[in-house]
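Appendix B.2, paired examples.
Example (i):
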Amino acid sequence: MNREIIKTLDGSTTIHIKEWNECYHSKHGAIQEAQHVFIKNGLSLFQNNNVSILEIGFGTGLNAFITFLESKKMNQTIDYVGVEGYPISSEELLSMNYVEELNASLDKSVFEKMHQSKWEEKTVLDTHFSLVKRQQFFTDIEDQDKYDLIYFDAFGYRVQPELWSTAVFKKMYDALRNNGVLVTYAARGVVKRSMIEVGFTVEKLEGPPGKREMFRARKSE
């Protein structure tokens, strides 16, 4: 598929897939979306605690990099697993401006190492942050009771409804520990029904810029 680099409304870049008219991040602001959905409404719930995170859709590495930066502020040790079926190219990576837009020049080497690290191997990025990238389709995830937090950042329901199915959310539910949390930018009724069907308790929250609502789901047995 044809892919192009575009700049979102907050100045940060993302990848746009022309055939789908779908972006890796919100056109209204890639960084703003990541901070609102995954940090404010996800990671912040675990302040001062060690956290094991699963990201569904590693993509450009934006969510992982912002999580790394926030974990230093929030006194957290994080084990981060990013799952991606189709890794981005080195050319696309070089076009991402997240280090500059986040004023994170001191951690530029960390962002680069995130992408240079080998797939399927654990990479220690800092004393408090480790990363494992898995090249894997979401439907093949078989983790059990392993994570405190899931960033569910798959392509939208409009273009890939199969990624938002009951079967996929059952895998997410099983992968979380008890009282674990899943956050996503999505807010469709069909998505909520799939989450509830597998056992999640779902709450609707204010969405990021350009989007009215989002979901946060909790596993409790």
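Example (ii):
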Amino acid sequence: MEYKINDIVINYQVIGQGKPIIMLHGYSTDHRLMTGCMERIFSNRSGYKRIYFDLPGMGKSSSAEWIVNSDIMLDIVIQFIEEMIPDENFLMVGESYGGYLLRGIVKMMADRVDGVAIICPLIIATHEKRNVPPQVVLVKDDQLLSKLNSEDMKNFNDNMVVQSEKIYDRYQNEIMSGINIADVHFLERFQNNGYEFSFDVDQANIKFAKPSLIVLGRQDSSVGYKDAWNILENYPRATFAVLDRAGHNLQIEQEELFNSLMNEWLIRVEEY
């Protein structure tokens, strides 16, 4: 489905009925990053309306020259939410850059947010200022790697801490599928000129005291895990988990544990 905001088209998908959950994917990927991991959660759980969409310039959503920074990106997301679920309270799940935008939404409209799950969140926009561990592969699959061309092999080695045929298939279907169709020129310009909010998104005057989950990869060399500790006090009802054998795509590398944490978060939301 499509929704038009000014001169851009937002591609989105709605699955299920019930409590709305806004799903926010990471930078340069698309909504398949979120459907790939979250629909597994809801295969045995009803009562939720999952709202997936592609951010501008990503997936099948168009870009525009006037989208120059994350403040504008946040405004677009809020406008989309208001159109999809006017006057309804909702939950949010955000991954990486989606976790950055999620915290902006909490800052702007916390009264309508009933719970958040934040996966490998971007905390510090400037990469050089992040506290990240070195890139490492803990479980290598040489047989799999021997089947890949040099570019795919390097990409997979650079981005996955644990390797297997199953993980590679999910990596291609849920991550690379979006990256391959993204508007590269728009994303490069945006990241170079306006990736960081103009305000401190984590300067919280009021604590978000509703069921929350913050889950990070111990071997995440993209955003790391240590910087996220600094936002924990903003979420007094948060479970904070750092998973071993997991990088920036922990939902794939640690699928069983990820699913358990997500289900436990939803139990807390339902009992809140």
